[in-house]
Write a structure and sequence with these properties.
784 residues, PH-domain like, 5 domains, eleven-stranded mixed β-sheet, seven-stranded antiparallel β-sheet, 32 strands
């Protein structure tokens, strides 16, 4: 492949010295990744030649390598520019962080590689998939062996980075900042470099503070920090005074925390039902000093390690796996659901992509939407009809769904079809669904008799359900009254609304011809128009479900909340955003969950508060995409109304005490401006029934995103804890304009652990910021 670029030429002695240097880097920096001296890490540090693929004609060789910080990847790129009427080429380097990578996919799995490369190079291709909306990096290696080496090495570094403890991630981040501050690369830090480093880690320090810190660590009086002095500098910088206070209060055994002291802390402060065995387990798991471990003691370092891991997290570790009863009928669960899943951006001109389905499914979305239209060459396509959004083949979407549906969760996936196709292309849709999904597609009811209720998520594990129009009742399968011809049905409610939005006068609801083959695979999710709750109760079977536009749904939730909840006790309801949300914004899903709606469809591609709430709602139960609704939303005798609370099983009054203590290593928002330091504040929000909704905030701390301290106490009165979500929002205070978003974390109140806890910090798109955390004290108590 002549388009490959060579790595820099060196003499034999220079090459040996360079390789020796890389071995040293792999040993020292790899140690923090758990890859000390690893050969795969050395391979990435050395780098190599890959072809970057952008189109059929744009395939250029580039030199790729892992930087010595072991967390930044770089590759050369060429940029054309004009100077004095002459076109010149500038060689630049493009960088991205290992933490920005979502996955590495081997083979021609991306849309780009399928479109721009031939099947004969399948064993040379791979893609780097990024989090968020950043475009995939499609690449080709020189040989299959080279491909395997790149993929396995990348996956190893990504997995090790992901599996680092929070303390190790913090350490890794700080030392990488130290390396960046060491401008001349001599492994020594001058006072000027220390000041630069402090700005990098989000601390605005005056000259006297920086000089004082430098002087304390410069024990050799050399005017530079090196070796152990840099380590001492790190320990002084990361010293947690607030953790010292807690530790010293409970460390009553010769200055250390014995197993009995730790148990005392777990029982009295963390309010856990702990035993002596639990204390021993934590010491064994987190203590870093072997002597202390042998003496059944926990040092301050071990205690900090415990606080920063799953056992010390705000999120109950018991809820990280599936813990709820998954044998209830399907409609007894909230189901993580996406609207217009194929869109990567807005609703009018953005791209449609199979990648959007993959990203949603990997986030445990269990209901995806497919807007189907006649395409060229007889092949149906998916796009937002009557707009400039791009088109993607229906069969490519089905293949992607099949490949990725059950990677994060084994529980059933609902394919919500909005069908605009001719009968001929509908036949092809049905055949693609049957062919590609195979036995995983539910083509008839479970069991040998006509069901009277939904099967459970457990019974439907690994299965696909089709939601769409059906020509007849489901019981015709068992009575030999099944139709043998195509027929006519009314179009989907959402399709009719889209048409209404694009026309001045309200159009009549159209009838569409429906293919029998497509009709026959709609089993448990038959789309019907909603008239009234009374009409649904008297005329509709359990498997007949309606879709509600947000304005209709919110009106019903406001005026007929209890009736809506009872409707959802034996039927499914799907809610979708208003057609006017052309920017792909979202509505608040909480009021819909409050009345028991299951399929509350949101635009997954939009990083918004509403998606943060959705992520929080589905965080527990193994992040499987199904959350069992509270018993009072499933019991026919319930008269629960979220708008006007009365006595009942739902009323469990609590007082939620929150103390926001401190934050650690918050990200810089403006990385271009070295002197830009955040002024952080914390908002604590409760989202639930109307009576529980509340928001309180701390003051802002000026010029400190590294270790701001608040010690601010809040109290919230909670009436219906089973429906409450807690959201922590970190913002950068701005006196002149709206505060800037720093990070957030959301979870159900029922998944919160009491006591001293660290709160992870997620970015806008819901990915964890590995170096950052919030430290709080929480207590959920029964109201007097």
């Amino acid at each position: 492949m002549s388009c490959f670029h060579k790595r820099p030429k060196r003499t034999k002695s220079e090459e040996l010295a360079f390789l020796e240097h890389l071995k040293k880097v792999a040993k020292e920096n790899g140690k923090r990744l758990g890859l000390e001296g690893d050969s795969d890490l050395q391979f990435l540090l050395l780098g190599g030649k890959l072809v970057k693929v952008r189109s059929k004609s744009w395939k250029h060789g580039r030199y790729f390598k892992l930087e010595e910080d072991c967390q930044t990847f770089s590759h050369e790129s060429k940029k054309a520019f004009k100077q004095n009427h002459t076109s010149l080429i500038s060689q630049l380097f493009t960088h991205f962080s290992i933490e920005d990578i979502e996955s590495v996919r081997k083979g021609r799995q991306s849309e780009g590689l399928k479109k721009y490369t031939d099947a004969s190079v399948e064993d040379l291709c791979f893609s780097i998939i990024f989090k968020g909306r950043k475009k995939n990096l499609d690449l080709m290696a020189e040989s299959p062996e080279d491909l395997n080496k790149w993929v396995s090495s990348l996956e190893k570094v990504i997995n090790n980075m992901h599996n680092l403890s929070n303390q190790k991630k913090s350490e890794h981040w700080i030392f990488s900042c130290i390396r960046k501050a060491d401008k001349n690369g001599d492994n020594m830090m001058t006072l000027k470099e220390v000041k630069h480093f402090l700005r990098q880690i989000n601390v605005e320090a005056d000259d006297s503070y920086a000089a004082d810190l430098f002087k304390k660590c410069d024990t050799s009086n050399s005017g530079t920090l090196e070796g152990e002095e840099i380590k001492q500098f790190y320990y002084m910088l990361t010293h947690r005074e607030e953790v010292d206070v807690i530790y010293e209060k409970y460390a009553q055994t010769e200055g250390q925390m014995s197993d009995r002291d730790l148990l005392n802390f777990l029982l009295n402060e963390q309010r856990e039902q702990a035993t002596a065995e639990d204390a021993h387990r934590l010491i064994e798991k987190y203590e870093v000093d072997e002597t202390a471990k042998q003496n059944n003691c926990m040092t301050k370092d071990g205690f900090l390690m415990y606080l920063q891991q799953d056992d010390g997290c705000i999120f109950n570790p018991a809820h990280r796996s599936v813990y709820q009863d998954m044998n209830q009928p399907l409609n007894h669960y909230y189901i993580s659901s996406s609207h217009n899943t194929y869109l990567m951006a807005d609703q009018l001109k953005g791209p449609s992509s199979t990648e959007a389905y993959i990203k949603a499914l990997l986030k445990s979305c269990r209901c995806v939407e497919l807007d189907c239209w006649d395409g060229a060459n007889g092949e149906p396509v998916i796009y937002h009809g009557h707009t400039l959004t791009s088109k993607v083949l229906f069969k490519d979407v089905i293949k992607a769904i099949k490949d990725y549906a059950f990677k994060t969760s084994q529980y059933p996936v609902i394919l919500s079809l909005e069908n605009h196709c001719s009968v001929e292309q509908q036949k092809l849709m049905a055949r693609h669904l049957v062919f590609f999904l195979g036995d995983a597609l539910v083509k008839k009811p479970l069991g040998d008799t006509m069901p009277t209720n939904f099967p459970s998520p457990e019974a439907l594990k690994g299965k696909f359900l089709i939601k769409g129009k059906r020509l007849n009742k489901l019981d015709s399968i068992f009575t030999n009254n099944n139709v043998i011809e195509d027929g006519t049905v009314s179009e989907e409610d959402e399709a009719a609304e889209c048409k209404e939005n694009s026309q001045k006068e309200k159009p009549k609801k159209s009838k569409i011809k429906l293919d029998k083959e497509l009709s026959d695979i709609v089993i448990y999710c038959k789309s019907v128009h909603f008239n009234s709750f009374e009409h649904s109760r008297e005329n509709q079977a359990f498997y007949e479900m309606s879709s509600f536009k947000e304005s209709k749904a919110f009106n019903l939730a406001e005026t007929s909340a209890t009736a809506f909840m009872h409707h959802n006790m034996d039927k499914l309801s799907r809610i979708y955003p208003a057609g006017s949300r052309t920017d792909s914004s979202n509505y608040n899903p909480v009021p819909m969950w409050n009345v028991g709606c299951q399929i509350v469809a949101l635009n997954f591609q939009t990083n918004s508060k509403e998606m943060h709430l959705n992520q929080g709602r589905f965080l527990p139960n193994g992040f499987c995409g199904y959350i069992l609704k509270p018993e009072f939303q499933r019991s026919l005798s319930s008269q629960f109304n979220p708008n006007t609370l009365t006595e009942g099983s739902w009323l469990k009054k609590k007082i939620f005490h929150v103390m926001v203590i401190s934050a650690q290593q918050l990200p810089k928002l403006n990385k271009e401006k070295q002197k830009s330091i955040v002024d952080p504040l914390v908002k604590v929000e409760i989202h639930g029934v109307r009576a529980d909704n509340a928001s309180k905030e701390t003051d802002h701390i000026e010029n400190n995103g590294f270790n701001p301290m608040w010690n601010k106490k809040f109290q919230f009165d909670i009436s219906v804890p089973e429906l409450a979500l807690v959201r922590f929002l970190l913002e950068d205070h701005d006196t002149a304009s709206q505060n800037d978003f720093i990070g957030q974390y959301c979870l159900p109140l029922t998944s919160v652990q009491n006591g001293y806890r660290h709160v992870p910090v997620l970015n806008k798109r819901g990915d964890i910021i590995s170096s950052a955390s919030l430290f709080v004290h929480l207590m959920l108590l029964d109201a007097p």
